[in-house]
């Protein structure tokens, strides 16, 4: 079971176990993590599960899809080159230890 | 999702040699006035009877537990929308109006139209609307505070969306009085051929004529959602004939739903003064306070799907071509999913509720709804000290929507 380290804006880190095949967002919700809202529950509508992927992990992720790309333009916190929607990051065993930084705001 | 809760394709060995579980037959009519007056005991009976039930009144299957409702919503290949999301089966009956190109469509056709409306109603577009929607909500609450006592259904739940949404769409000023009756008609028409549906359709001609006219490109102001939809005909994403029908989707589902949603939220805050106090202490909770009201009251109570093949639901087989009624409101209060499901808690983690549906058909206008709800509740949080119910609260009956006809309240200023 891969572990994701979510880093809050105040640099506090929370580690969460994730199910392989599920989006990283699911693991955050299952853990009750503050900072991931996921208003649409993973239906790719809302852009409120925004994260910044730690640079060391960026190349290991599948590229941003067209729908995700458009949604990322609407995030409440600034879109950065390493910005992703955590519902679209499908967890694999290779992503064990993934570091995702949380934005200041989701809405 | 547990294996029990996930519909599985039915094969010869799908039940592992065990006979399929008998499906409980219930006499509950979820489209009756008695049900609308107090659906909660019936919701519990529907959930407790089993993962899938058979409703004898209308000869349809029903799912009311969260796990099954969520699973059905997220398996559109098995539970299709193209045969209608009401009781009427479009494979057997002529629809009362030309079917929706998005709500009553399946992939791949749905994928294309959905992409267009998703762009028109995207998070980026919401950012541009936020300041205006917030300013209008503030002015609305200021005006209502000056009056003190009023009917919150007409003066707030209806007045606020009417003051922002038709303009955002780019509608002409004339004829807007048809909007709420048309939406009421659409949502009644998903129900069975009862008095509510039949009388709504019988009175529908002038409302339908207005809508058809208003969906045409020349009647939609530049810069609005409607004109944006038509612009996608220029790029070839949709055809000239499809554009008006997609505008119709916003006119059908974009106004009445937010009226019921805002009404639900105000009704919750009026009944739970402790939650109003928490909201006042932290106005950033406004958005979640609205979301929690959507979960608790579930303004859209039900939708149907139609099975495209025989399928196992919770150990019982449902055949092909069967209507399955999803009880969204019952799922949103299922104690198997929610702690203290009947309480209004504005700090609850609401993600996953099915008040806006789930999956590929999840409400495409949910961001507009949340923007409106947040704007109104944020204004209340900052300006209102108390909300008192000051007269008889009465219910408005609709085959799909749950909400109030009257909600007399008295506000005191903060």
How would you portray this structure in words?
- The complex is a heterodimer of chains A (107) and B (414).
- Chain A is of the alpha+beta class and 107 residues long.
- Chain A has one domain (3-101): Ubiquitin-like (UB roll) (Roll), CATH 3.10.20.30.
- Helix content of chain A is 18%, strand content 20%.
- Chain A has helices at residues 24-31, 55-58, 66-72; strands at residues 3-7, 13-17, 50-53, 83-85, 98-101.
- In chain A, strands 2-1-5-3-4 form a five-stranded mixed beta sheet.
- In chain A, a hairpin with a 5-residue loop joins strand 1 (3-7) and strand 2 (13-17).
- Chain B has 414 residues and is an alpha+beta fold.
- Chain B has a single domain, classed as Cytochrome P450 (Cytochrome p450, Orthogonal Bundle).
- Chain B has a six-stranded mixed beta sheet with strand order 2-3-4-10-7-5, with helices on both faces.
- In chain B, strand 8 (311-313) and strand 9 form a beta hairpin.
- Mean pLDDT of chain B is 95; it is low at 1-6 and 9-16.
- Chains A and B meet through helix 3 of A and helix 4, helix 5 and helix 16 of B.
Topology readout:
The complex is a heterodimer of chains A (107) and B (414).
Chain A: E1 3-7, E2 13-17, H1 24-31, E3 50-53, H2 55-58, H3 66-72, E4 83-85, E5 98-101
Parallel strand pairs in A: 1-5
Antiparallel strand pairs in A: 1-2, 3-4, 3-5
Chain B: E1 8-9, E2 25-26, H1 33-37, H2 40-49, E3 53-55, E4 60-63, H3 66-73, E5 79-80, H4 109-120, H5 123-147, E6 149-151, H6 152-169, H7 179-189, H8 195-202, H9 205-214, H10 225-234, H11 242-253, H12 256-271, H13 273-281, H14 286-297, E7 302-307, E8 311-313, E9 316-318, E10 323-327, H15 328-331, H16 366-383, E11 384-389, E12 394-396, E13 403-406, E14 408-413
Parallel strand pairs in B: 2-3, 4-10
Antiparallel strand pairs in B: 1-8, 3-4, 5-7, 6-14, 7-10, 8-9, 11-14, 12-13
Helix pairs in contact in B: 5-6, 5-16, 6-12, 7-8, 10-11, 12-14, 12-16, 13-16, 14-16
């Amino acid at each position: 079971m891969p572990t994701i380290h979510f880093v809050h804006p105040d640099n506090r880190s929370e580690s969460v176990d994730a199910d392989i095949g599920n989006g990283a967002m699911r693991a955050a919700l299952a853990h009750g993590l503050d900072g991931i809202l996921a208003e649409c529950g993973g239906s790719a509508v809302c852009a409120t599960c925004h994260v910044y992927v730690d640079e060391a992990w960026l190349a290991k992720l599948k590229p941003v899809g067209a729908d995700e790309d458009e949604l990322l333009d609407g995030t409440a916190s600034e879109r950065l080159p390493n910005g992703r929607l955590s519902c679209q990051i499908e967890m694999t065993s290779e992503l064990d230890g993934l570091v995702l930084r949380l934005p200041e705001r989701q809405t | 999702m547990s294996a029990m809760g996930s519909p599985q394709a039915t094969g010869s060995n799908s039940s592992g040699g065990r006979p399929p579980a008998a499906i409980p037959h219930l006499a509950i009519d979820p489209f009756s006035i008695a049900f609308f007056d107090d659906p909660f005991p019936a919701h519990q009976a529907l959930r407790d009877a089993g993962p899938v039930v058979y409703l004898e009144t209308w000869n349809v299957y029903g799912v009311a537990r969260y796990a099954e409702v969520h699973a059905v919503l997220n398996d559109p290949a098995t539970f299709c929308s193209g045969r209608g999301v009401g009781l009427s089966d479009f494979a057997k009956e002529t629809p009362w109006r030309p079917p929706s190109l998005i709500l009553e469509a399946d992939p791949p056709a749905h994928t294309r139209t959905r992409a267009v409306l998703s762009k028109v109603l995207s998070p980026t577009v919401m950012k541009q609307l936020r300041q205006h929607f917030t300013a209008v909500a503030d002015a609305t609450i200021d005006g209502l505070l000056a009056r003190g006592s009023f009917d919150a259904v007409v003066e707030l739940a209806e007045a606020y969306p009417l003051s922002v949404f038709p303009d955002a769409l780019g509608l002409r000023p004339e004829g807007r009085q048809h909007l709420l009756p048309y939406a009421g008609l659409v949502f009644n028409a998903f129900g069975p051929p009862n008095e509510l549906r039949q009388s709504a359709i019988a009175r529908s001609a002038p409302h339908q004529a207005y809508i058809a006219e208003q969906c045409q490109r020349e009647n939609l102001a530049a810069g609005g959602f409607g004109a944006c939809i038509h612009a996608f005909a220029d790029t070839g994403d949709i055809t000239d004939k499809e554009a008006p029908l997609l505008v119709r989707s916003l006119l059908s589902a974009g106004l009445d739903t937010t009226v019921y949603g805002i009404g639900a939220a105000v009704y919750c805050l009026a009944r739970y003064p402790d939650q109003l106090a928490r909201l006042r202490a932290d106005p950033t909770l406004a958005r979640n306070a609205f979301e929690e009201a959507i979960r608790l009251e579930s303004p859209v109570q039900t939708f149907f799907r139609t099975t495209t093949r025989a399928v196992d639901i919770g150990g019982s087989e449902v055949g092909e071509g069967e209507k399955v009624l999803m009880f969204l409101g019952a799922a949103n209060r299922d104690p198997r999913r929610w702690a203290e499901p009947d309480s209004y808690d504005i700090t609850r983690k609401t993600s996953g509720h099915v008040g806006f549906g789930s999956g590929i058909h999840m409400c495409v206008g949910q961001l507009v709804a949340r923007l409106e709800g947040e704007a109104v509740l944020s204004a209340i949080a900052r300006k209102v000290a108390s909300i008192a119910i000051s007269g008889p609260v009465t219910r408005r009956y609709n085959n799909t929507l749950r909400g109030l006809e009257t909600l007399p309240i008295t506000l005191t200023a903060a």
